[in-house]
Amino acid sequence: MDAVVKPLKPVPSRNDFSLAPKAKPTREEAEAAVRVLLRWAGDDPSREGLVDTPKRVVKAYEELFKGYQQDAAQILSTVFEDVEGYDDMVLVRDIPFASHCEHHMVPFVGKAHVAYFPSDGVVGLSKLARVVEVFARRLQTQETMTAQITEAIEDALRPRGIAVLIDAEHMCMSMRGVQKHGASTITTRFTGLFRDEPAEQARFFTMVRGMK
So what's the pLDDT on residue 34? Predict the structure, then answer.
């Protein structure tokens, strides 16, 4: 296959962090903030078990929210145009992810299913999973994450249709509030053929379920 590297497009405004405060807190300031939260929770950050917790939390945040330093457009910038005339659905299903609710900063975890109809080319299948990861590793709502994945694929590939389905359990529902364990939330976004052709949307759902 011949790969074509497309020029990078601007990140959509929802993801434009150039508007964020320029002065990023130092690591020391972040660790001090964790100590304040530990005290507010009612514990003693100086006790043996918590002395190193601020450092661990800050290090964990670097990994949990690394999506802020990643660009979905760059990940999708390499497009393979030589696909031997293939123009049917491409589906990557059961992509696991873990994200954090922007309202309570507690996790929500689940799986994403992403499909598209190629137009001028395809991307490597792993790139679709990486795009899911980029947006999951930010403070999110599931609805916004679903839209962001769709928009990133649209901008990069201009396909004839996109389908994104996310099924997740939110800890803000199971650990706090109504405390309904096992409740799942499903969000979808369809464009092009998936939106306009009911048969293709139905085929997508069938393939997501494993064609059983």
Answer: 97
